[in-house]
Amino acid sequence: MLEKRLTIFRLLGFEVKLHISWAIIALLIAWSLAKGFFPFHFPNLSPATYWWMGAVGALGLFLSIILHELAHSLVAKKYGLPIKGITLFIFGGVAEMEEEPASPDAEFRMAIAGPIASILLGAGFYGFSVLGKELAWPVPLTGLLFYLGWINWILAIFNLVPAFPLDGGRVLRAFLWNRKGNLRKATRTASNIGAAFGAWLIVAGGLLFLMGNILGGMWWFLIGLFLRSASQSSYQQLLIRKALEGEPIRRFMTPEPVVISPALSIEDLVEDYIYKYHHELFPVMADSKLLGCVRAQQVKQIPRNEWTQHSVQELTSTSSSENTVPADMDAIHVLSRMQQSGNSRLMVVEGSRLVGIVVLKDLLAFLALKMDLEGNE
């Protein structure tokens, strides 16, 4: 969900990233505001005015969501939860936590911080819109302030719906977790409610569309579709985290992996190793020293008729966090690194010494087995 992101700035120590989907949603929001919201509430303005109001309104929503997610992040930081950053994506934003909250209290406080921030922002914008009317500010300005007050209150109300992974769903999960003492069961219940709420939005959106409310129906349908998917994937992510956390990656690695010499020709690499072992990555070693690795895809850099003229050394990538992991690293962090880098094979090291290879399919096989055996817990 969160690939293809662009870091746009840092705020209070957190990276704020923009998902590629926001390019689409920003245009849709600006169009909806310029063609629907502003003409309805503030008639008799010029089309150009409505369009710049729509553009500024979309930017204001963008900044409001950042502040909403920043509130989550600051509370999470207070409780020692590592936050990788804040990402804005197609239907809102997310504070990227590397771990689950340690207690129901931490979950509750972190979840409720976002809606509180949106309520306060809404009050501030609405207050300035009222003040602007009294002072005879231009209608487009008071209209924008009114919209930003209204949309922040809508964000708060919508996020307080007890449907995971919305903030209200996290509040519900905190309550169930505190009452039952089981995070997994609490998440499953909250996620089921989230999926049901998403399905209801899909149906309601379809009905609105058929009744002629095309814009409203479209938004309800798409948000419902997204929420239903997010609720189900969030529960699956928790299951994966619980299955892998605390497991050192050495447990899943293949010891004594196939290694190659830097002097090996590309022709021999392909014929004697890639075609024989079907591996995507091969560690490169000389005199028992790890030099780096070569991936099968790198061979494409060299024309087929020149394979005998080039050696592995020319393609070797030096060891880095993108291709190596420490043997004692938590398996869930290794899985996260694989997802971020797109690499399904990583070298496992102790210091500068190669001790094995970890493969994504081995992690997934373990996950499938553990979740099958312990799925009813």
What keyword list fits this structure?
377 residues, alpha+beta, CBS-domain, four-stranded mixed beta sheet, 10 helices, 11 strands, elongated
Nutshell version of this structure?
This protein is α+β, with helices and mostly antiparallel strands and 377 residues long. The protein has ten helices and eleven strands.
Q: Can you walk me through this structure?
A:
- The chain is an alpha+beta fold.
- It folds into 2 domains: 5-244, no CATH class; 249-373, CBS-domain, CATH 3.10.580.10.
- The chain is 57% helix and 16% strand.
- The strands form 3 sheets. The chain has a 4-stranded mixed β-sheet with strand order 1-2-3-4. Strands 5-11-10-9 form a 4-stranded mixed β-sheet.
- Helix 2 packs across helix 4 (139-159), helix 3 packs antiparallel against helix 4 (139-159) and helix 5 runs antiparallel to helix 6 (183-210).
- The longest helix has 32 residues, at 47-78.
- It is elongated, with a radius of gyration of 26 Å.
- The mean pLDDT is 86.
Taking pLDDT < 50 over at least 5 consecutive residues as the criterion, the unreliable ranges are none
Run of helices and strands: EEHHEEHHHHHEHEEEEHEEH
Q: Which overall shape is indicated by the principal axes computed on the Cα atoms?
A: elongated
Radius of gyration: 26 Å
Number of DSSP-assigned strands: 11
| DSSP helix fraction | 55-70%
Strand order of the largest sheet: 1-2-3-4
User: So how many helices?
Assistant: 10
What is the mean predicted local confidence, pLDDT? 86
Please indicate the count of domains: 2
Distance between the termini: 28 Å
Structural class: alpha+beta
In percent terms, what proportion of residues is strand? 15-25%
Main beta-sheet strand count, sense and barrel state: 4 strands, mixed
